[in-house]
Amino acid sequence: MDELNPYFDIAELAGKFLQGVVTDEERVFLNAWIAQDYQNRILWENLTREPYLQQQLDSFKGKDPGAAWQKLLSAIRSAPDEEEVVLAGSARRRFHPIFRYAAAAALLGFIAYIGYRWETNRPVASPGIPVVAKTFDDIQPGTAKARLVLGNGRVLALGASAKDTIREDDGSRAEAAMDVLRYAAATSNLSEPAQFNSMITPRGGEYKLVLSDGTKVWLNAASSIRYPTRFTGARREVWLEGEAFLEVAGDPSHPFVVRTPKTDITVLGTCFNVKSYTDEPYDRTSLVAGSVRVSTGQGGAVILEPGMQSTVTTGERIERRDANLEEALAWKNGLFVFEHESLESICRKLSRWYNVDFRFRDPAYKTLRFTGRLRRGDHITGLLHMLEAAYHVRFEQSGLTLSVGSR
Amino acid sequence: MEELRCMALLNAGDEKALQHIFSLFYERLCFFAREITQTDLQAEDLVQEAFIQLWKHRNGFDSFRSAKAFLYLAVKNGGRNQLKHQKVVLKHVRAQTEPPVERAVLHKMIEAEVLAEVRKALDQLPEGCREVIHLCYFEGLRNQEAASRLEVSINTVKTQKLRGLRMLRMGLKHFPFFFLFLTGCCHPFCLLSCL
Fold first, then answer.
1. Low-confidence ranges of chain B (pLDDT < 50)
2. A218-250 residue pLDDT tens
3. Are the beta carbons of B117 and A330 separated by less than 8 Å?
């Protein structure tokens, strides 16, 4: 188990650094580790950022260690020493006697470095990037926030801290809590016609929504969805701009229709992702489960099976092929997943989430391709440093605009 | 409990030694396990099982570090099995059940270690900030709960938490005033935030 020692050493040094008691020699060692690769750099950026540290510390406290200790004590006492010790309450999960070997095997995998693939025509930069480099401190990752436009035109701000009950003129009711707005199931004695509400996420915001029929909607940044407070007609219709993941509640007699500027998606009960940003070159629907029919205004239509996606370009041509679901659903899983993606497209995604603008000083950089996977909650600094290292590109910040060009 | 003595007692099968090790590492292991399992309950189960394994192999450890390494690996290993199981259950939602990258897990371990260290250091800050920090980080109170317990505003709680971090980050080396105020039982930043 000595293989973990280098990591414990780094953790110790980092702890010392944060307490300001690191020696010069240790600092050199630490710097070398940070400069080793961009993942180390990202971790370092995070650990030395106050908001991140605070957030992590807030969630660090375990739930009731005292009770956990009592549970452990009774588990080890009730088991005769020679036999396997079984955790109370989960009797069926036994450790295999060859645990030692399993642990050793796991260790091999544990230590193995699963690298990220870099695709670039340019040589990778030498690790000459200074450790205390510029940071983009005032650029923050997105959070749970949205605006809700009610039927009567009133606008409410929804945020992670707001807890609110919203009553509409038509008698419908919705509860906002944390990061989700939940509409109560429609009651039959509502006589008023249904109102239309809109949920709008800004750049740097995302929010969840449960419609009156139980359909769940995850709304990505810079997106909007318009929907009735309860569904009355033969079809359940919503209007979407931007990106959303939907888990449609099954109801065969009332088909669910998502309308975007370019496409209509008709579904029965299913999970799928719709991406329809006006600043993206295409609309894309990626199907996880069930079945959907995607049609364009021009009359083109395809039916998707799970694991497939349709792409509608501005010429309203519709195309169907196997989906990369990991990439399509990355945002919902708190990730950025880039598969041979152009820097221009990456920057569009970053601008929606971090609420910054990108300007290309040299258009040639737009077409550089990159493959990698990152967490959306991470600070943008590590990510930009990583791109800088891969491309010999340089990001310069002025206000909330980042200009992209050569070093 | 001193390290060598604790390990000797553990080898001899003393539950007190196990309890000491548990109190040192339980929370950081839970933090680490949450990265692997996504739910708190599963995370706690994994950590429990890791400690049970430690107890079974209690003869094999000569330092806190070796015990710690064993615990992290046991959690990681258990998490892998759990994920495999889930994967079968949730086969259709591919993207959600991708196991975390090994490297990310290693980094989470570093993070858990650093946070545990920082938290310990925060708990040793002079009075003022410390009360808030202890309530929030060690007793798990929310900002609002800590505020009403101490009869201060929630903003005071927030600023004191931040002050605490800042004090650490400035470090004693760069902050000679600290020694002057140590005798006065309060740090200037705490004084500031109390005003």
1. 88-101, 171-195
2. 999 999 999 999 898 889 999 999 999 999 988
3. no
A299 burial level (CB within 10 Å; 0-12, 13-18, 19+): exposed
Rounded to two decimals, what is the model's pTM? 0.48
pLDDT for A92-142, tens place per residue? 333 444 444 444 444 444 333 333 333 333 333 333 333 344 667 678 888
User: In this complex, is the C-beta atom of A68 within 8 Å of any C-beta atom belonging to chain B?
Assistant: yes
Percent of chain A with pLDDT over 70: 83
What integer pLDDT is reported at residue B25 of this predicted model? 95
Contact A69 B23 (CB under 8 A): yes
Question: Is the ipTM of this structure higher than 0.85?
Answer: no
Contacts of A106 in chain B (CB under 8 A): 73, 76-77, 80
B6 touches chain A (CB under 8 A): no
**pLDDT tens digits, B94-124:** 334 444 447 778 889 999 999 998 888 888 7
Q: For A359, phi and psi rounded to 5 degrees? A: -130, 130
- Which residues 271-300 on chain A approach chain B with CB closer than 8 angstroms? 271, 288-289
Q: Please count the other Cβ atoms lying within 10 Å of the Cβ belonging to residue A342.
A: 15
In CATH, what number does A64-139+332-407 get?
Answer: 3.55.50.30
Of the CATH numbers 2.60.120.1440, 3.30.1330.40, 3.40.1060.10, 3.40.190.150, which one belongs to the domain with range A143-328? 2.60.120.1440
Contact A87 B55 (CB under 8 A): no
Q: How far apart are CA A70 and CA B23, in angstroms?
A: 12
- Choose among A65, A73, A90: nearest Cβ to B45: A90
DSSP string, A256-317: EEEE-SSEEEEESS-EEEEEE-TTSSEEEEEEEES-EEEEETTS-EEEE-TTEEEEEETT--
Return the pLDDT at A339: 82
* Amino acid at site A224: S
- Of A276, A324, A275, A317, nearest to A300 (Cα)? A317
Q: Which domains does chain B have, with CATH numbers?
A: 1-123 (no CATH), 126-195 (1.10.10)
DSSP A128-183: -S-SS----TT----EEEEEEE-TTS-EEEEETT-EEEEE-TTS-EEEEETTEEEE
Number of residues that this document lists for chain B? 195
What pLDDT, on a 0 to 100 scale, did the predictor assign at position A324?
Answer: 85
CB B161 within 8 A of CB B168: no
Tens digits of residue pLDDT in B50-68: 999 999 988 888 899 999 9
Q: What 3-state DSSP class applies to A341? A: strand
For residues A226 and A197, the answer to whether their CB atoms sit within 8 Å is: yes
Are A43 and B110 a contacting pair at CB < 8 A?
Answer: yes
For chain A, say whether B154 makes contact (Cβ under 8 Å). no
Distance from the Cα of B187 to chain A's closest Cα (Å) equals 15
**CB contact (8 A) between residue A5 and residue B121:** no
